[in-house]
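Bumping with the actual sequence this time:
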Amino acid sequence: MSDDLDDLYQDIILDHNKRPRHYGALADYTHTAEGYNAICGDKLTIFLVINGDLIETVQFEAACCAICKSSASMMSVALTGKTLAEAEAVFQRVGDLLSNDLNLKADILFDGEIAALAGVRKFAARIKCATLPWHTYIAALKGSALSTD
């Protein structure tokens, strides 16, 4: 990855950590789950409002590292207003970004800010930090808690 892309990705992650979008508890949620990463101590709660097949709202609360909080913030933006099928496609794409050596210049055009998570794959121990919000979202859909080791 070029230094320019590294800098851009770092700026995006820092911005979402400093000013997380859709942060805070949601009282009238339809789905929720708590996620916990026992290795690093990241904890977060995902709150969803789903109406039919539409994700109307995604919010979260967290006590976690910058990567986890940034990922949750990006996720909340990316999934709000999506259908469940569209959200599944985004979830799969994030998995690809974190596990495959893709064309990073194309990623930022295709995926926008979520492409910043691709930089995390250089640090294997931090991949769980980036994926915890996404797996907790899936747990919320299924109505279960998530704990990773």
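The tokens above came from a reply further down the thread. The chain has a mean pLDDT of 85.
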